[in-house]
């Protein structure tokens, strides 16, 4: 469904739209986007439409060039095709380049045990970012901008909290990642402000019916969160955003310590990760658990790693007898040998080495 902003204009809309311009201007400085070639990931929805329009008309510190990229997942038939045409029309209106890609996320979900297969949303995200990376190369873009905003940040932090997460998970969505190639300039802008911006500038955008489906946890949270949180703190979006930003800074500092310890304790031999566990039990618990998670990640384990697995690994490294082993997610095994501990198979290794 296509939505269009228009008359009559509410004076409050003009105030909120001005805030979008100001916050975007500050983000352009923080993210050092002035003079760079920026590709905007545009779905055709409100958020990315507002971002593309605001970037194109930014009065200062604006990118040297802007292009719009759309990824059609082919999951919504004619509606998905209409989204693609909407983004193409927006690019023409703004006078910027446009590129699109069609992808098939179902391919990532074929074969293998169900517990290891990504959800359809996870698969769609993976193939979407792969396609966007290809389009960046095609257009010689220096960075990719997405339209994640303050509401997205709050929902992400709270969903992780409700599902169970560690401190790093409370960092939510970073303003920049992938070495600065992926940027999110609207993280300090609320959705209600983007709606006011779109109405003020009479923008057209597409509404995805799946965003209203109660089958998705994020949609259920989105429906009830504003009224609930507003009863405790009218500035709840800012409060959660500040928490996420503070945790990101802490996590960045801690990550440097973890990486330094990993360089000292990890080595790769014959496709296995060798772990020096000397005095491992003397490490601060927060450091040792992050170190073990890093070890599992280097060996290809991502999904399914829990606090229980990390605790088992800690106990094993502290007192296992030579010749014993424990099984871990991702088909990995941690073994105690006379020469130390090894985790495998690492990428390129073989399970029969166990």
SSE blueprint and pairings:
Blueprint: E1 2-4, H1 11-30, E2 37-41, H2 46-56, E3 65-72, H3 78-94, E4 97-102, H4 120-139, E5 143-145, H5 150-163, E6 176-177, E7 182-183, H6 191-200, E8 204-206, H7 217-230, H8 236-265, E9 266-269, E10 272-275, H9 285-298, H10 307-319, E11 325-328, E12 332-337, E13 340-344
Parallel strand pairs: 2-3, 2-5, 3-4, 5-7
Antiparallel strand pairs: 1-8, 6-7, 9-10, 10-13, 11-12, 12-13
Helix pairs in contact: 1-6, 2-6, 5-8, 8-9, 9-10
Description:
With 354 residues, this protein is of the alpha/beta class. 46% of the residues lie in helices and 16% in strands. It is built from ten helices and 13 strands. The strands form three sheets. It has a six-stranded mixed β-sheet, with helices on both faces. Strand 12 (332-337) and strand 13 form a beta hairpin. Helix 9 (285-298) packs across helix 10. It is elongated. It starts with a strand and ends in a 10-residue tail after the last strand.
What key phrases describe this protein's structure?
354 residues; alpha/beta; Rossmann fold; Uridine Diphospho-n-acetylenolpyruvylglucosamine Reductase, domain 3; 2 domains; 10 helices; 16% strand; elongated; disordered C terminus
């Amino acid at each position: 469904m296509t939505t269009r902003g228009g008359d009559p204009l509410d004076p409050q809309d003009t105030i909120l739209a001005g805030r979008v311009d100001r916050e975007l201007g500050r983000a352009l400085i923080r993210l050092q986007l002035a003079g760079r070639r920026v590709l905007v990931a545009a779905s055709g929805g409100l958020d990315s439409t507002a971002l593309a329009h605001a970037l194109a008309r930014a009065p200062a510190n604006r990118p040297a060039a802007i292009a719009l990229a759309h990824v059609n997942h082919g999951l919504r038939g004619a509606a998905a095709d209409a989204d693609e045409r909407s983004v193409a029309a927006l690019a023409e209106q703004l006078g910027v380049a446009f590129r699109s890609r069609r992808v098939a996320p179902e391919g990532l979900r074929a074969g293998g045990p169900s517990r290891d297969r990504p959800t359809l949303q996870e698969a769609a995200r993976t193939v979407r970012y792969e396609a966007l990376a290809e389009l960046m190369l095609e257009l010689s873009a220096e960075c990719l901008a997405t339209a994640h905003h303050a509401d997205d940040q709050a929902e992400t932090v709270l969903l992780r909290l409700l599902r169970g997460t560690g401190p790093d998970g409370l960092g939510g969505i970073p303003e920049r990642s992938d070495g600065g190639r992926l940027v999110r300039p609207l993280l300090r802008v609320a959705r209600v402000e983007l709606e006011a911006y779109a109405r003020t500038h009479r923008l057209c955008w597409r509404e995805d019916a799946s965003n209203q489906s109660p089958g998705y946890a994020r949609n259920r949270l989105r429906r009830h969160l504003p009224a609930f949180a507003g009863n405790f703190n009218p500035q709840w979006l800012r409060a959660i955003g500040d928490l996420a930003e503070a945790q990101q800074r802490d996590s960045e500092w801690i990550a440097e310590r973890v990486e330094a310890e990993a360089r000292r304790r990890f080595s790769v031999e014959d496709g296995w990760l060798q772990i020096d566990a000397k005095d491992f039990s003397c490490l601060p618990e927060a450091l040792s658990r992050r170190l073990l998670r890093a070890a599992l990640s280097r060996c290809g384990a991502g999904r399914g790693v829990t606090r229980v697995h990390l605790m088992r690994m800690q106990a094993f490294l502290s007192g296992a007898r030579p010749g014993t082993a424990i099984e871990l997610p991702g088909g990995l095994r941690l073994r105690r040998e006379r020469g130390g501990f090894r985790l495998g198979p690492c990428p390129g290794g073989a399970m029969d080495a166990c």
